[in-house]
Design a protein that fits this description.
alpha/beta; Rossmann fold; eight-stranded mixed sheet; 35% helix; Dienelactn_hydro; AB_hydrolase_fold; Dienelactone hydrolase; hydrolase activity; hydrolase
Length: 250
């Protein structure tokens, strides 16, 4: 598969900020937020799996060189970009990354176009927790966190932090209390995810579906892809995007 030529390129603007987007497929909408260093061929391949499963996939390009592979050079370049960008938090705890506002706007636009119970939102690695932030003020019906790694887990407090402000966390907890579920995937021995899955279990209770993959891998659906993780995501998306919203079921 050639990328990005095989995807329809567009853009989305919110509050004066514009990022490129790539889109493909038909069916319920799913926003796939790439990991560091960007939309690599492996990220695009995962997006294509969702397209093949019957979803409209939109991949925003937030940093990095689209279509470039995961190499030390591309990783370093992406890290330089996010470190100076005001859209992302890196080390601060108890705050929501400003880019969440842009992502919520993208989700609202996609849902307005496609309808249905809501859209899916899947974040990876540095962007792994963004799907939680999108639940606050967007029609996100299927949030998926793949190896969430922000803030960088330097010390116990940061390793447990969810990259959410206290007010946003309360909104997420309220939605979960009303029936929303959250899916999370990580390798059981991945140091980059820290202890935040324990925080999610404590704060969200049974609403948090925790998938632990054995080993020391990191990228659960791309570079270190495990079929059991992909299957869990496909099942979760189908259960939440192909049925009536919670409370409206017959």
């Amino acid at each position: 598969m050639t990328f990005p030529d095989s995807w329809v390129q567009g853009s989305h603007t919110h509050d004066g900020t514009t990022h490129p987007t790539y889109r493909r497929g038909a069916g319920p909408g799913v926003i796939v937020i790439h990991e560091i260093p960007g939309i690599t061929p492996a990220v695009a391949a995962f997006g294509q799996e969702l397209v093949d499963a019957g979803y409209t996939v939109v991949m925003p390009s937030l940093f990095g060189r689209d279509g470039a592979g995961m190499t030390p050079v591309t990783i370093a370049g992406a890290l330089r970009k996010v470190c100076v960008s005001r859209e992302f938090t890196k080390l601060r705890t108890g705050v929501t990354s400003p880019v969440a506002g842009w992502l919520r706007s993208l989700a609202r636009e996609l849902h307005e176009e496609l309808g249905g119970p809501g859209v899916g939102a899947l974040g990876m690695c540095f962007a792994g927790g963004f799907a939680l932030a999108m639940m606050v003020d967007a029609p996100v019906a299927a949030p998926v966190l793949c190896q969430p790694s922000t803030p960088l887990p330097l010390g116990g407090k940061r390793s447990r932090d969810l990259n959410l402000s206290p007010a946003d966390l309360e909104v997420v907890k309220g939605r979960c209390a009303a029936g929303q579920q959250v899916l999370g995937l990580q390798f059981s021995m991945d140091p980059l995810t820290g202890k935040r899955f324990d925080t999610l279990t404590r704060e969200l209770g049974q609403a948090f579906i925790r998938v632990e993959l054995e080993g020391r891998g990191h990228s659960t659906v791309t570079e270190h892809r495990r079929q059991e993780g992909v299957d869990a995501i496909l099942d979760f998306l189908a259960a939440n995007l192909r049925t009536a919203p919670h409370g409206d079921r017959a």
